[in-house]
Protein: Pentatricopeptide repeat-containing protein
Organism: Prunus yedoensis var. nudiflora
Amino acid sequence: MVDLLGRAGGLDQAVKFIESMPIKPDISIWSSLLRACGSHQNLELAEKVFQQLIKIDPLNDAAYALISNIYAKASRWDDVNWARKKLHELGVRKQPGCSLIEQNGTVHEFTAWDFSNPQSAEIYAMLDEIKGRLQKQDLVETSSHHSERLVVAFGLLNNPPRTPIRVVYNLQICRDCHSAMKLISQAYNREIVIRDNYRFHRFVYGNCSCKDYW
Ligand SMILES: [Zn+2]
Ligand SMILES: [Zn+2]
């Protein structure tokens, strides 16, 4: 709801909605609102929302990136510098991307360039096959060994045919992987559902449910 209201520019309504919620707003709700503040350039509200976000998650680098962009649009260069400095500090400690998939009651975990899974040889062969198929569709590859790719290759290898591949990813899916997932869903006729730390992405027949909105 907050996302919908925010996207449509109803920032006041989104705030009222949050205030009326019976549960405490979490990171994803504040992040949605902060993104909406950025799209509609409401600096005053953005700063308040940013404070709420940082209170819950002081290491939230996405929040600093968002506020830095909002400050930049408002030409508040001192604040931009402050946010970028913070972002740099956080980057040093930043957690690595990690993707999870459940298979017959076992959770498998993947990081980028991960070779720890016993099926690694098959997974990397699968990634090469995927790469071949995507190249035919003119996708320039820079992220072919991100954990999201490994986990989806694992899903393609192990999930029964025509069943959806469901993944949980701890960061925000990158633009390259997002494009790749759309093509993979089409090329392999597979539904792929990725819950990243912002939203659900459901890839079917070359499209994503988020309509390419982050
Ligand atoms: Zn990626
Ligand atoms: Zn998406």
In short: The pocket of zinc ion (ligand 1) is lined by residues 143, 146, 148, 174, 176-177 (CB under 6 Å). The longest helix spans residues 77-93.
